[in-house]
Specification:
single chain; 304 residues; Rossmann fold; six-stranded mixed beta sheet; four-stranded antiparallel beta sheet; 10 helices; binds adenosine-5'-triphosphate; binds magnesium ion
């Protein structure tokens, strides 16, 4: 059974068609990356999964439970960390976690796990601090704790690392990896594509409310037909016309060209540069990463 099954989901916000027939499964036990540029529809899809928004048509089920018709079972099976920080400022961390625990019918028997969560999230010494007294990164950690009070088998993280420092980012990724190793299904949205590339085993890329790629990470990368030729030029120069469509980036003296695996050779490209009197001081080739695949599919730069 899929951890999450998304069936023909459309979402309209008045005139805006935000999701245009989303249809895919998130396999149980996967570390799934839901990627896409700003406004692609990622949070809208996650909010529908969490029961916070309603699909205009279509349905989503979590571990076989329809999020509308069997919302109690669906919620029990899933913990969602929303992109927006929403919380009651006058509750302490511990009170918030206890309250959330209570929603799932859990009482004092859950205290050991709540204390463990505080420890894992490095919040133990702040347990009795009011939310409004916490920094942004601490609040985000509390929301992560809140999503995990009932040890849900499916954990959905919507941009958990936006605006947090490197140390916390690393801590969150380690934590997500540990949960995944314990058998949890993890769904992650992030604009840090190197991290998605190292963590996720399966990836969907959304663009303008549509799925433009859905595959195992390795297959997605392998399908990309280009590799990169990175050159340090002696001077900034005008790129000859026949190479213009191969330019991936050109900043200062650093030129990166896309070489088609079947049609382009390094030799031909270097010949073209030499005949245009362009000299280089260094070069290397590089396999493409998720970032190149993302840009080619969405035609949008990654913003982090
Ligand atoms: N409550 C709402 N009312 C009207 N339009 C909305 C609402 N929520 C989202 N939208 C619109 O739906 C589209 C998708 O937004 P969504 O927040 O799902 O994107 P996203 O992929 O999560 O982007 P980001 O990477 O910036 O978080 C956007 O055009 C957005 O303006
Ligand atoms: Mg979002």
């Amino acid at each position: 059974m899929a951890a999450i099954s998304i069936q023909q989901v459309h979402k309209h916000y008045k005139q805006l068609h935000a999701l245009k027939g989303i249809n895919f499964d998130i396999p149980e036990g996967s570390f799934f990356g839901l990627l896409g540029p700003n406004g692609a529809g990622k949070s809208t899809l996650i909010n529908i999964m969490a029961g916070l928004a309603k699909a205009t048509t279509g349905s989503i089920s979590i571990k076989g439970h329809d999020v509308r018709k069997q919302w109690r079972q669906a919620r029990q099976a899933m913990g969602v960390v929303p992109q927006e920080l929403v919380y009651d400022p006058f509750f302490t961390i511990k009170e918030l976690l206890r309250l959330q625990s209570g929603y799932f019918g859990l009482g004092r028997e859950n205290e050991v796990w709540l204390d463990e969560l505080l420890e894992i999230l490095s919040l133990t010494d702040k347990a009795n601090t009011n939310m409004f007294e916490l920094s942004g990164g601490m609040k985000r950690r509390v929301l992560i704790g809140q999503a995990l009070v009932h040890k849900p088998p499916v954990v959905v993280l919507d941009e958990p690392t936006a605006g947090v420092d490197i140390e916390l980012r690393k801590m969150l990724w380690d934590f997500a990896t540990q949960l995944h190793d314990k058998g949890h299904t993890i769904v992650l949205t992030t604009h840090y594509l190197e991290e998605a590339e190292s963590l996720c085993d399966r990836i969907a890329i959304l663009n303008d409310g549509e799925v433009v790629a859905l595959d195992d990470k390795q297959a997605l990368l392998a399908r990309y037909p280009f590799r990169l030729l990175c050159l340090s030029l002696e001077n900034h120069a005008d790129i000859p016309a026949q190479l213009q469509d191969k330019v991936q980036s050109f900043e200062g003296n650093q030129l990166v060209l896309r070489l088609h695996r079947d049609h382009d050779t390094v030799n031909d490209v270097l010949e073209s540069l030499r005949s245009a009197q362009i000299n280089f001081v260094d070069l290397h080739t590089q396999e493409p990463g998720l970032e190149e695949v993302f840009i080619s599919l969405t035609h949008k730069e990654v913003n982090s």
